[in-house]
């Protein structure tokens, strides 16, 4: 199977995917090759459009001032699923944020059990509203974060949840 891109007589770019198979004669030798192609231009254009939309939405999420991260149905932070604000506030490099249970790595041990229970309730389908808890940075500094957890629409076989938080440490201090 292979693809070719052509420009037709009207100057339009067309993408054709091809399949070929040998025709075997009675003597076991290849007598000919049968090939068929189908125009997949519209499908490819749709895929390119969806990729541009994904890049656009990623740019919005990445530049948002809210602390954003995605967790799976076990409470584990997805790889490459935190935004710049989350990484900056919690003092982690982007590559170091995924793969950990949220409440074990990012929540102060004194609040971890309550956060775990709230996240498990959200994962089970309950609306948990906004809560304030202490989150801990990679250097051990404590932040007070007002946060929520929301299920996201499925885009593949996974169910993911968005944790969205705002650092309210200074507001609480005052």
Topology:
Layout lengths: L1 E6 L5 E12 L5 E10 L1 H23 L3 E5 L5 E6 L1 H7 L11 H4 L3 H15 L7 E6 L5 E10 L9 E7 L1 H5 L1
Antiparallel strand pairs: 1-2, 2-3, 4-5, 4-8, 6-7, 7-8
Briefly characterize the structure.
By secondary structure, this protein is α+β, with helices and mostly antiparallel strands.
Descriptive notes:
- The protein is of the alpha+beta class.
- The protein has five helices and eight strands.
- The protein has helices spanning 41-63, 84-90, 102-105, 109-123, 169-173, and strands spanning 2-7, 13-24, 30-39, 67-71, 77-82, 131-136, 142-151, 161-167.
- The strands form two sheets. It has a five-stranded antiparallel β-sheet.
Keywords:
174 residues, alpha+beta, 5-stranded antiparallel sheet, 8 strands
Strand content: 35-45%
* Class derived from helix and strand content: alpha+beta
Taking the alpha carbons of the first and last residues, their distance comes to: 66 Å
Number of helices: 5
The SSE order reads EEEHEEHHHEEEH
- On the 0-100 scale, what is the average pLDDT? 92
Strand order across the largest sheet:
5-4-8-7-6
Uncertain ranges: none
> Radius of gyration, rounded?
25 Å
Helix content: 25-40%
Describe the biggest sheet?
A: 5 strands, antiparallel
- How many DSSP-defined strands? 8
The shape, in one word, is elongated
């Amino acid at each position: 199977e292979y693809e070719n891109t052509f420009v037709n007589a009207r100057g339009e770019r067309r993408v054709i995917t091809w399949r070929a198979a040998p025709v075997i004669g009675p003597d076991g030798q290849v007598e000919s090759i049968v090939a068929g192609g189908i125009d997949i231009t519209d499908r490819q254009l749709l895929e390119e459009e969806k990729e541009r939309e994904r890049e656009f939405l990623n740019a919005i999420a990445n530049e948002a001032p809210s602390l954003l991260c995605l967790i799976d149905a076990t409470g584990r932070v997805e790889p490459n699923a935190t935004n710049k604000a989350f990484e900056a506030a919690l003092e982690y490099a982007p590559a170091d944020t995924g793969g950990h249970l949220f409440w074990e790595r990012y929540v102060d041990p004194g609040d971890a059990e309550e956060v775990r229970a709230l996240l498990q309730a959200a994962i089970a389908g309950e609306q948990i509203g906004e809560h304030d808890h202490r989150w801990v940075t990679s250097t051990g500094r404590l932040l007070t974060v007002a946060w929520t957890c929301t299920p996201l629409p499925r885009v593949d076989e996974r169910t993911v949840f968005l944790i969205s938080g705002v650092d309210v440490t200074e507001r609480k201090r005052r």
